Amino acid sequence: MNKSISQTxxxxxYGAVAALFMFGTTAGACSLPGGTxxxxxxxxxxSVRLGLPHTEAEARPTDRGNGPAxxxxxxxxxxxxxxxxxxxxxxxFHSDGTEMLNDITPPAEGNVCLGVWVQMDAKTYxxxxxxxxxxxxxxxxxxxxxDVTIVMGSADTFSGTYSLTYYxxxxxxxxxxxxxxxATRVLPNY
Length: 190
What we know:
Blueprint: E1 26-27, E2 73-81, E3 84-93, E4 98-103, E5 112-119, E6 124-135, E7 140-154, E8 157-168, E9 173-185
Antiparallel strand pairs: 1-6, 2-3, 2-9, 3-4, 4-5, 5-6, 6-7, 7-8, 8-9
C-alpha cells in the first residue's frame, strides 16, 4: 500500500476499501491503499492468498448450535469498489459488540483496527469502524468513518455494502467512497 494515500486501518478501511481511502495524501491505519487512484489487489500473486486450507467437506464445529446465523466469529472478507477488489482482511466480531480487523496492508502502515457492531434484525448487522487519517509525513489530517451493513447469507457467509467518509481535523466532511463486501467464515482445521 502506498502511504501517500491513506493507511487508515491498513488497507481495508479503507485501503480496503482502497478506493475508499483515496484522500489524496492521507495515510493511517485502516485506510485504503493507493496513491491518487484505485490500486486493485493482484490475486494472481500467491503472496496475497488469505484463505486457510479447508474444504466444505471438513467437519463442522459442534458448538455453533442450530440457531440463526450470527456474525460472531472470524471471517475472511473481500472488499470491492466499482467491480475491483480493493482489500482483503481477517475480521473478528466479538460477542460483546466489538470488532477487530487485520487486513492485507503491511504492519508498518497500520493493518489492525477496531470497531463496534450491533444486530439490526435476524440477518442484518451494522458496523461502525472509525479510524485516524494521516498525511505522508505522519501528520494527523482527520478521521475516516467506515459504515458497513452486513446481511447474513448462511451460517458461514455474508455480504454487504460499505461507505467510507473522510472528515478533516475541523470536522468538515470530505470524500465518500462506497463499495461491497463478501465474507466466508474461517473454520477450524480438524
